[in-house]
Amino acid sequence: MQGPGDWYEDAATRWLCAQGWQVVQRNFHCKLGEIDIIALDGEYLVFVEVRARSNPRFSSAAASVDRRKQRKLLRAARVFLQRNAQWRARPCRFDVLAFNPRQSMPEPAPQWIRSAFSA
Fold first, then answer.
1. What is the largest CA-CA distance in the chain?
2. Burial zone of 56 (CB within 10 Å; 0-12 exposed, 13-18 middle, 19+ buried)
3. The domain spanning residue 77 has which CATH number?
């Protein structure tokens, strides 16, 4: 059974593919963290964090990627690269796709934050 997070990750994957990206892996897990989507954007290997907010009274979806979450993503990305040597020579970046509540949209468009943070 899919939860709301899965729906947003599916929507993010569709959006990335529509932009011409190639998804390498979804839901990479290790003991240090998890990466929602790993994809190729041209020469870049991009680690994508998907965030969503359903209630506009709380901080934006993008703002929820705080320092603690960034550190977990960095650690998980290092593990991914250690386990997958074929990607090590690529330049890497960390993007955020944030879905914020909108009215009357069948599938909300994400807010794309390219190079949201760096190592």
1. 44
2. exposed
3. 3.40.1350.10
C-alpha span between 43 and 39 (Å, rounded): 10
Question: Each residue of 80-115: pLDDT tens digit?
Answer: 999 999 999 999 999 999 887 665 566 667 889 898
Q: How many domains does one find in the chain?
A: 1
Distances from the Cα of 31 to the Cα of 35, 78, 83, 102, 117, angstroms: 12, 12, 13, 35, 22
pLDDT tens digits, one per residue of 13-57: 999 999 999 999 999 999 999 999 999 999 999 999 998 866 555
Distance in angstroms (rounded) separating the CA atoms of residues 76 and 91? 16
Distance CA 20, CA 34 (A): 24
